[in-house]
Specification:
By secondary structure, the chain is α+β, with helices and mostly antiparallel strands. The protein contains four helices and three strands; from the N terminus they run H-E-E-H-H-E-H. The chain has a single domain, classed as K homology (KH) domain (GMP Synthetase, Chain A, domain 3, 2-Layer Sandwich). A three-stranded mixed sheet has the order 1-2-3.
C-alpha cells in the first residue's frame, strides 16, 4: 500500500502528536480519573484543517470516561495546541479524538495465546 500522505501532512501530524502528548501529560492523571492516556498517533487531513488524534487509555475500563473528558475539553485543548503551533501553522486544525484500541487487541491476543 502506497502512503498517500504528503511530507507536510506527516510533519504536521508528528508535531501535533508531540504537542498533544505534552498537553495531556501536563493535565495529570487526576483529570482522567487516574487513567494513563497516551497519544498513539495523529492523522491530518490533506488541507491540514482536521487532526484525528488517536489515544490509548489504560486501564481500558476507563476509556469511555476519559473520551468524554477529552471531548468535553476539546476547545481548550485545541487552544493550548494553537499556542504551541502558532508559528508553524496558519490554521490550528480541528481536533477529533479517537480511541486506539490496539492495546486491547494485543491483550486479547496474549490471553488467547495463554490458553
Amino acid at each position: 500500500m502506497e502512503n498517500t500522505e504528503s511530507t507536510r501532512q506527516l510533519k504536521v501530524a508528528k508535531e501535533i502528536q508531540k504537542d498533544m502528548a505534552e498537553i495531556i501529560r501536563s493535565k495529570g492523571m487526576a483529570i482522567f480519573g487516574g487513567a494513563l492516556v497516551t497519544v498513539s498517533g495523529v492523522r491530518v487531513s490533506p488541507d491540514l484543517s482536521v487532526a484525528k488524534v488517536y489515544v490509548s487509555i489504560f486501564p481500558s475500563g476507563k476509556a469511555s470516561a476519559v473520551m468524554d473528558t477529552l471531548n468535553a475539553n476539546v476547545k481548550a485543548l485545541r487552544g493550548e495546541l494553537g499556542a504551541r503551533v502558532a508559528k508553524q501553522l496558519r490554521i490550528v486544525p480541528e481536533i477529533v479524538f479517537y480511541l486506539d484500541s490496539s492495546l486491547d487487541y494485543v491483550e486479547h491476543i496474549e490471553e488467547l495465546l495463554k490458553k
